[in-house]
Amino acid sequence: MLRTFIYDTLIADGAMPSSVEIAAHFSVSKPDALRALREMKVGKTVLPNPETGEIWMAGPFAAAATPYVLRAAGRRWFANCAWDMLGVATLVATPVDIETQCTDCGDPITMHFEPQDQSLGTELLVHFLLPARQWYDDIGFT
Amino acid sequence: MPIDSVLRLARGWYTDPRVEAWRPRTRDESQRVLTDAGFVGDFWQLPEDALRRRLGFGLSPLL
After folding, report:
1. pLDDT per position as a tens digit, A81-109
2. Do A125 and B2 touch (CB under 8 A)?
3. Residue A91: which of B1, B14, B55 has the nearest Cβ?
4. A97 has which bridge partners?
């Protein structure tokens, strides 16, 4: 299944699979792989880039570099926002080092997270810019 | 919100999409995840299902 392949690749390799890799894995053409990605457009789960058709985000992972970075054993993941950053930490189920920055003052923030942790050991706050009823109006902005 | 509250929310919100039985949540299921993590009140009220359907939630058999 395409969804499983995307997340297996992401978590194992630390990289979003390209349409070429998807095509090779499922023995289909690249246009067929791109079409399958378009048809997966369901909410925030897997969204293709509107210009290239390649995966833009596979919630909570981002395909492009963002200020929310997680590292573990030579792998690196990017998240879409602070909430997603913690989603990635949860999904990869391995100890991770988190690097981000304060969106207020710009100071760098680093944290270590173990899968069983119930607390990040910090009093940092996460600012939600939009009320939940507006989250899906423009998911990229959200 | 305190980051540990957001951690609780992330744990409930992001279930493993590699599991075959995974499917998108309904609006009410998602609202329950928010509530269970302590995100209650008008600010945390998700849009109604009609809007979510217009945006493509829960339509694809591929997911």
Report:
1. 999 999 999 999 999 999 999 988 999 99
2. yes
3. B14
4. A71, A112
pLDDT digits 0-9 by tens, A6-56: 999 999 999 999 999 999 999 999 999 999 998 885 556 888 998 999 999
Residues of A (71-130) whose Cβ lies below 8 Å from B = 82-84, 86-87, 89-91, 117-120, 122-126, 128
Domain A60-142 coded CATH 3.30.450.410: yes
Task: Give the ipTM.
Answer: 0.87
Beta bridge partners of A100: A109
**Which is it for the CA torsion B9, B14, B16, B20, positive or negative?**
positive
The domain made up of A2-58 is a member of CATH 1.10.510: no
pLDDT block averages, 10 residues each, chain B of length 63: 96 91 87 96 86 50 32
Secondary element (H or E) of residue A58: strand A55-58
